[in-house]
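Consider the following input, taken from an annotated entry for Patched family protein (Arabidopsis thaliana).
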Amino acid sequence: MAIPTKLLLLQLFTFSLLLTANLTHSEPSNNRHSKEYCAMYDICGHRSDGKVLNCPYASPSIQPDELFSAKIQSLCPTISGNVCCTETQFDTLRSQVQQAVPFLVGCPACLRNFLNLFCELSCSPNQSLFINVTSVAEVSGNLTVDGIDYHITDTFGEGLYESCKEVKFGTMNTRAINFVGGGAKNFREWFTFIGQKAPSGFPGSPYAINFKSSIPESSAMVPMNVSVYSCGDTSLGCSCGDCPSSPACSSPEPLPPHDEDSCSIRIGPLKVRCIELSMALVYVLLVSCFFGWAGLNRRRNTTQPLDSSKPLLHPVEEDGINSEMKENILGVKVQRHAQLSPVQRYMAKFYRSYGSWIARNPSLVLFMSVAIVLALCSGLYNFKVETRPEKLWVGPESKAAEEKKFFDTHLSPFYRIEQLILATVPDPKSGRAPSIVTDENILLLFDIQQKVDQIRGNYSGSEVSLPDICLKPLGEDCATQSILQYFKMDSGTFDDYGGVEHAEYCFQHYTSSETCLSAFQAPVDPSAVLGGFSGNNYSEVMVSELGCSVPFDCYSDVKRTLFQATAFVVTYPVNNVIGDSSNENARAVAWEKSFIQLAKEELLPMVRSKNLSLSFSSESSIEEELKRESTADVITIAASYLVMFVYISVTLGDAPQFYTFYISSKVLLGLSGVVLVLLSVLGSVGVFSALGVKSTLIIMEVIPFLVLAVGVDNMCILVHAVKRQPREVSLEQRISSALVEVGPSITLASLSEVLAFAVGAFVPMPACRIFSMFAALAIMLDFFLQITAFVALIVFDCKRSADNRIDCFPCIKVPSSSRESVEGGREPGFLERYMKEVHAPVLGLWGVKMVVVAVFFAFALASIAISPRLETGLEQKIVLPRDSYLQDYFDSLSEYLRVGPPLYFVVKNYNYSSESRHTNQLCSISQCNSNSLLNEISRASQASDTSYIAKPAASWLDDFLVWLSPEAFGCCRKFTNGSYCPPDDQPPCCTAEEDICSLDGICKDCTTCFRHSDLVQDRPSTAQFREKLPWFLNALPSADCAKGGHGAYTNSVDLKGYESGVIQASEFRTYHTPLNTQGDYVNALRAAREFSSRISNSLKIDIFPYSVFYIFFEQYLNIWTVALTNLAIAIGAIFIVCWLITSSAWSSAIIVLVLVMILVDLMGMMVILGIQLNAVSVVNLIMSIGIAVEFCVHISHAFLMSSGDREHRAREALETMGASVFSGITLTKLVGVIVLCFARSEIFVVYYFQMYLALVIIGFLHGLVFLPVILSLAGPPQLNLDIEQQQTDEASSSLLN
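Applying the prediction step yields:
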């Protein structure tokens, strides 16, 4: 935002007035150049704009009286004795010079040199030696000076420029030379700027001044060469911020750029990172060792007899193996002594007893389990949805949240932003966009502004307009940032001011020309209202594109086509209120809704008809679009559920046969399973709602899908396990045996998933933390319903099928002939035959095993090598619907905006007492410490590529100390009664009715607040500081004193309790460089934190940086630490659970190895797909561990419980569980995930379609390809020992399979 100040700018333009104040000389033909002789004397006329013109008559210098001499000495100590100016001229000079003092007084050497330049011009007794009148003009019958030569040595000119070039003007966050020198790059440009004759009505000199450094040989003239002071002079020394070249100022090296992986090695023309080379070497070493071990192991195995073939996985009884059942039914005598852990024996006993009990009491189990979950759903009465972005993405305990709360409470919350970006459309042929700065486009912007002014929001029946809510730093005008401010926001002045030419003039003179001041009486920086130009600020464009640095040169020669801005940026700052007890924010939201509606319905068509583009946003836009997103993908999510339901219904049933399909199908069972999943989700939401935890939209859309995808796996495994049981045994025994067979692996998988999701609750981002908590409880409830209600439903379905009743219509019974065909036996399905006849035998080939291990290890290590390339952040566009108007707005921000976000350095507990060193440790003017905060900020801005600080900070402290200074005699003043006296150009000293303010009014007796003797080393005492600070903060800036703090610093200081000598909070404002990518935002925050920490430690003062975006990007500073820590905890928890349940550390280690490989491969895919690392993806990675467990644990458990050598056991595990894993886990997730690619929200496509699809494919390959190979090569030993089996007939053996 532009800094509010009335005539906060004076510049050399006004200083040229003082040049006019002393010119008196004889006719050019009568010039006399000698000591004690004047070239000009007295005033002989005035221009039409009121500027005074000197007399061109030469005359001897005169002796002033004692009082006049003292007055001259106070301003011009180099002049003594005779003078070449009248007292009236000197008073005019003094009144005009005081406008320059606030800009330069922070650097005494610069101020003294600058005053000497004009003192010598105006009053030097030897004026004729270096002043030569070259032209005259007649005004009202009198001859007046129209042009002069001013001879000055290069030594003085260079010394003047060097002492002033780095002096800062804090209020505008820029160099003072931009105001008093037109941004000159050297003293010659500065002199050219000063000397150009200004057109009538424009600021500048009323006549031409030609600065020269050479003298003709025949001339008696001598260049002016008074002593020039260096800014590093010890007697008139400047601060390091204003004089970085001073020997006393150290220049510490800038902070190094943050680089996650700076190590790289060049191999010929190829440059590779160290980690990539390391992984390549590790791969070569691992593969070599593996092939060597595998070869030795194979030769050793060929010399040993293979174990005889063992039966497939056997149901386990309390003591281990159910041999009695098989002996009684199949005639097989089996004796086993199982080496099972206590946990396994307990689970086997529990599931056998529980399976028998549930088969006998299915109705009771179904009713009780559903009733419990329904009771949990009762908490939905307190259901609420959180949509506020700061509550979703920022933890309340975060450092940034605490700093924001401190800033908002002690200073002022950052204003609300409403914005329009009007841009030209690139030419289809050249691809270049034309300039936006044309008469037609400015008039169009006036039409747009008129419609915005007519907006009336409706809040509780009352109308709300922009003036009711906008920010008004000065007066009653809104601080709208727009190019229209150069026309006072009035279309009627457009032609009067000169149209687009006036705008182009103001681009260069926005700080100096009163006609360029905004309607709210402050300058408007072109960089804030224009966009799409090259460089980081508009001055760079003027210099690089126009080839000139002197504004008047540009003004006279420039064509508007050379101005390369392609966009108008219009910003409406709106008041923001903490807590909003007065409903101010609610009134603003009502206006914002009308603003967005107007932009969509009227402004957009209007702009497009002119072949322009328009993007727009309001403060509440993101929140409103997030709400809309809740309904954006309802159809997609419903379609995903429907597809999964259809697949479940098909896969749960037997192979379709027309004459038995209506009996063998499981549509009703599948539908019941989906209902149980939804009940588990509602139960989870109900529990947390009862506890007062608000839900999020992502929970309502993703968790049902996620739990369904997870829950379907166990449903398929349970149904397939029941199908595998011999049909000759009773239903009770089949249910019991099925639960004993798959119950432990289902329990292990579900418990692992719950733990993995629960770990996600430690992620600091609230939306992801809440998501993880809801998901963990939902999966736990789903597991509970699966082993209770769903098993009971399986019992009912088996009874229905056995009773020959139709699926979905169980009341209808078919003839018994069909029943016989159904009960006649179950043929193996296609997947089971594929696993037994193709998949398992192929993986058993030795060459295939070697290739599988080599390829999977290669992918894993390659993923580790590229994982550091994973970018952090979360693009705002991804969170929004694809058709959101904010998509275009964020694109426009990146393309057109050339101003970075405001950056505040907040100082806590500043002790301003005279005994404290804090003042000099913070300020940057004369006598301040070289390593002060503001000096360090200034240094950092010179290395903006690493510090991300664009410019020196606006300092209320510097401006206050300058405002207090006796040199700034037009600023801090008091009446004879001690009350505050404003500058002479402000009421009551000067009324609005007066064209020219009189110096003889009621303020004629006002004096400066202090004399030098009243201050201690130019610093106020504690009492003086305490008394005058409120004066400063209430002082309006004007031409006579641009340092007034009202508007610019109104909210920069917390005056609550400041009387104690300590200011609790104050801020120093600057800007970040333009930030376009997520990495820029993260690095800017990191750099600001590191800078503040270093300064705080050095000065022993509590300082922290604050910007509006910090609260959303803080999480990315340590996102890698959070991610790796939580992933390690999740993997560690799963290892412990697997160990406890299986009692095999070997098997658990293999599971963890496969999980880690799945995880790193998924991270590698994230790099390839361009998916960023953020809280959403971290939660997905944590969840992927839980989901990936299902691909591993069932195969591993089957391998562990089977008997024989490793090769045979791996094949048995694939034949037994492979089909279930593929159909129940892989395909189930795949069909549901694919539907998400049609979602309208990009976040679903990127983080839930792409990531989950990658997870399913990677998990399937590792679970059904890599894991069986590793188990066959290095699997754990079998648990079953001393097995004796006597097989009595071939048929019985086949039934066992």
